[in-house]
């Protein structure tokens, strides 16, 4: 498929492919098709359900809160959208082997889609990555290597491997323009699933390419006349690691590297942006352009929101509940109005996480009499 890679900073067209940054200024590259491009479903990704909260919406004092169930993608996370799109373009780029840095979800997604495409995948993950996610990537045939440090260390490791061995880097920051272009398709889905346009979309973010892809997706729909406005995008970060939110509250455009003293339970939010702060700056730019906001939530607020979603039959990993936590916070602050249409992106499955939602161990009955007494 004919396309261009255009720098978001200087608008230069990158001729060499694959490419991970603008050769003129080092800026982020954006995928622009030169002809109509259809989605590339490889394993049924996308078209995930949009589920309204019922009793929980009343608890939040909001009329219309919807959960976009991205955990129902083939490998259990939104990363499948980007991987499917990137792998669909990989053959024309001459890709043979794949490297990816991941907090967990991207490694499983790259492994599954790489396996489907017949390409070997090596994943570099932080040493703290849950074994549920490590086992999932390994089950698809990936070679998984744990690396000391946080996600930024894994990012630098994957970047070095890609440069040294000439492997294709599918790391899900903004480094691969095809990956974050694959997130744009969710916007048309949301437009078709809603009878009234969304006012706010809650997006859990590390570096933030999911939010960036959503901004560009709605921008295209606005240019096509499909929507009248771009929903206001909320970038949700943890109080353990919030470099983008820090810049937002400073009313700045520059994002600084973060030094995390303790990780959040929402592993996908543990991104200090060390060595690639321009990714955070671009996400912040998309937040500003959408007239959105950044929000900081605590682990306690995330767990509370996760339990609330569980009572509605929705089981997500901690990062996937961060949007609901943010919605509750913004409603209490008076930012959200009761009648606003709100979408929260549940980014990954609860089956991927070893973090409990505060439940106690279930009791054990040894006899029918004991069973009846427990009821």
TrEMBL record:
Residues 43-348 form the Tryptophan synthase beta chain-like PALP domain. Pathway: Amino-acid biosynthesis; L-threonine biosynthesis; L-threonine from L-aspartate: step 5/5. One of its GO terms (molecular function) is threonine synthase activity. The modification N6-(pyridoxal phosphate)lysine is found at residue 79. Its EC number is 4.2.3.1. Its cofactor is pyridoxal 5'-phosphate. It catalyses: O-phospho-L-homoserine + H2O = L-threonine + phosphate. It comes from the Bacteria. GO terms for biological process: isoleucine biosynthetic process; L-serine catabolic process; L-threonine catabolic process; threonine biosynthetic process. Keywords: Amino-acid biosynthesis, Lyase, Pyridoxal phosphate, Threonine biosynthesis. It holds the Pfam family PALP. It is an enzyme of class 4 (lyase). Catalyzes the gamma-elimination of phosphate from L-phosphohomoserine and the beta-addition of water to produce L-threonine. NCBIfam families: thrC (TIGR00260). Belongs to the threonine synthase family. This is Threonine synthase.
């Amino acid at each position: 498929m004919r396309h261009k890679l255009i720098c978001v900073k200087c608008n230069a067209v990158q001729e060499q492919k694959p490419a991970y940054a603008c050769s003129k200024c080092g800026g982020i590259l954006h995928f622009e098709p030169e002809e109509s491009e259809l989605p590339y479903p490889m394993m049924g990704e996308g078209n995930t359900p949009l589920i309204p909260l019922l009793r929980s919406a009343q608890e939040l004092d909001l009329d219309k809160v919807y959960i976009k169930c991205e955990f129902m993608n083939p490998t259990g996370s939104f990363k499948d959208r980007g991987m499917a799109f990137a792998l669909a373009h990989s053959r024309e780029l001459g890709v043979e082997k794949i490297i990816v840095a991941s907090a967990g979800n991207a490694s499983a997604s790259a492994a599954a889609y790489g396996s489907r495409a017949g390409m070997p995948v090596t994943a570099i993950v932080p040493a703290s990555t849950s074994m549920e996610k490590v086992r999932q990537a390994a089950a698809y045939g990936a070679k998984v290597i744990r690396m000391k440090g946080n996600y930024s260390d894994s990012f630098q490791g994957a970047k070095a491997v890609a440069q040294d061995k000439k492997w294709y880097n599918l790391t899900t920051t903004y480094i691969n323009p095809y990956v974050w272009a694959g997130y744009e398709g969710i916007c048309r889905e949301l437009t078709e699933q809603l009878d009234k346009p969304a006012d706010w979309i809650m997006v859990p973010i590390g570096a933030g390419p999911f939010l960036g892809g959503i901004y560009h997706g709605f921008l295209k729909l606005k240019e096509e006349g499909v929507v009248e406005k771009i929903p206001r995008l909320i970038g949700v970060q943890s109080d353990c690691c919030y470099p983008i939110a820090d810049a937002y509250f400073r009313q700045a455009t520059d994002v600084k590297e973060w030094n995390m003293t303790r990780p959040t339970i929402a592993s996908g939010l543990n991104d200090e942006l060390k060595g690639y702060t321009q990714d955070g700056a671009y996400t912040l730019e998309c937040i500003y352009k959408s007239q959105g906001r950044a929000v900081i939530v605590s682990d306690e607020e995330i767990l509370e929101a996760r339990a609330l979603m569980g009572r509605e039959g929705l089981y997500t990993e901690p990062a996937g509940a961060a949007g609901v936590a943010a919605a509750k916070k913004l409603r209490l602050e008076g930012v959200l109005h009761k009648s606003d249409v709100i979408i929260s992106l549940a980014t990954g499955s609860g089956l991927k996480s070893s973090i409990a939602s505060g439940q106690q161990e279930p009791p054990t009955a040894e006899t029918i009499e004991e069973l009846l007494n427990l009821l």
